[in-house]
Design goal:
30% helix; Neutral Protease, domain 2; alpha+beta; 10 helices; globular; 3 domains
Length: 434
């Protein structure tokens, strides 16, 4: 269970009365990017066109760029001077369009990222993790959801998984292929990503939904066993949420290393999870956690990282709720006991905090314990207080109401109060707000 802790991890205003000397506030609509990772050199080269609206007047545009080297920036074919400071790229502009008038900026870049993307040269593997701005210029804000068109160029003997649906493959002369992925539904940028490797593959389905299981370290037959519960998980989450899985396919990749990361339409899971499940078929929390994010996190998304527990606490809790459904109450309660003990250890150290964080810029391991485990334990206690019907009716209303939107903790409270008829002020004051 402790391995879950390795996961990682604008307000619209009127143009009237805004100070034009301040940075312009933007609402990104779409990213169209071309990316070529070089696994041998552990580098990336890319180009991205960002389409956005201006929602607050200003003379400067700003995007997150990690440690990438910006080669050029163009607006309407004209080269624009830039400034890079503190992992932010800013552009001074004079021709700010009116609100709701789409605006485009074209950026070329390269880099040797030390985080946000994991290279395994000898195994010919690479996959993305948090955060996206380490490999493509973007806005890291979780509330600014956008659509995506992404083209990944890689050697022709490797398989590629990407955000969205595979729309096109183009074979190049130099034994390379361009894989083009399209995501027409808007998602936060931290759910964008790709994985590349010489994978073995098992293909399954749940009705019209295609399921793919990939790994270089496990055979197709082993992959079928490792992910045997995926279809049941999807069915369970659909029923509890009231929302069908948001896509045409779902892919699970067992990648080299110890990091797991959810992305829109696929997940990369740490390699030894496969051995773990082959030895103990009920030990499926991690896959359940990452799959749950397709609803709680990717689609019902925290407005900002201060409310991150709404992503992670829900995913931890729902993975255990599935375990209860599939394997019985005792295993669910065993999980809850683990979460409670982890939280109590933080309390004993004197570093307990509200689940609504005042600052999530440099979270400690204890902070992550709170967001993941105190968050899940709090949902269990809320379930106990409200009872089965009210709690699960509340989860369904919360999910259906805010699917595809951004949320804060008071949204959850309001829904649960509406469904149950209870005043949850005391509960939220005890477990969430302080």
């Amino acid at each position: 269970m402790k391995q879950i802790l390795f996961l990682l991890l604008i307000i619209n205003t009127s143009l009237n009365g805004q100070d034009a000397t301040q940075p312009a506030e933007t609402d990104v609509l779409n990213y169209s990017c071309d990316i070529e990772p070089d696994i041998t050199r552990k580098t990336v080269h890319g180009r991205v066109t960002i389409t956005f609206n201006i929602v607050s007047a200003g003379t400067k545009l700003s995007f997150d760029c990690g440690n990438l080297v910006i080669e050029s920036v163009q607006i309407k074919g004209k080269e624009i001077p830039i400034n890079v400071k503190g992992n932010k790229m800013s552009i001074q502009v004079s021709d700010i369009p009116k609100a709701e008038q789409p605006y485009e900026v074209d950026i070329q870049y390269h880099g040797s990222p030390t985080r946000g993307i994991n290279f395994f040269t000898e195994l010919e593997q690479v996959y993305t993790v948090f955060s996206t701005s380490q490999w493509v210029v973007c806005k890291d804000s979780p509330d600014d959801k956008a659509t995506l068109s992404m083209r990944i160029t890689c050697p022709s003997h490797l398989k590629v998984v990407g955000t969205g649906e595979l729309a096109k493959k183009t074979t190049l002369k130099e034994n390379k292929i361009i894989f083009e992925w399209s995501q027409p539904t808007a998602f936060p940028t931290y759910t964008f990503g790709f994985a590349v490797g010489p994978y073995n593959e098992f293909i399954d389905s749940k009705g019209a939904l295609e399921l793919r299981y990939l790994s270089s370290a496990y055979s197709s037959a082993e992959l079928m066993q490792i992910f045997a519960e995926t279809k049941s998980m999807i069915q369970f989450f659909e029923e509890r949420s009231g929302v069908s899985y948001p896509g045409k396919s779902y892919t699970q990749v067992l990648g080299e290393g110890n990091v797991s990361q959810e992305m829109a339409g696929f997940t990369v899971i740490r390699l030894n999870y496969g051995k773990q499940v082959l030895e103990s078929p009920s030990d499926i929390n991690l896959a359940g956690h990452e799959l749950a994010h397709q609803w709680w996190g990717n689609s019902v998304t925290c407005l900002n990282w201060n409310h991150f527990w709404l992503n992670e606490g829900f995913a931890v809790f729902m993975s255990s709720a599935f375990k209860e459904f599939r394997f019985g109450r005792d295993l669910y309660l065993k999980d809850i006991s683990v979460y409670k003990d982890a939280y109590q250890a933080v309390v004993k150290k004197g570093v307990d905090k509200p689940l609504i964080f005042q600052n999530w810029i440099n979270p400690t391991s204890d902070d992550r314990t709170l967001v993941y485990y105190k968050g899940a334990y709090s949902l269990h206690l809320l379930r106990e207080q409200l009872g089965e019907k009210a709690f699960w009716d509340g989860v369904k209303k919360y999910t259906t109401t805010y699917f595809g939107k951004s949320v804060v903790s008071r949204d959850l409270r309001q829904v649960m109060e509406d469904v149950s008829g209870q005043d949850l002020g005391p509960f939220f004051a005890t477990w969430i707000d302080r």
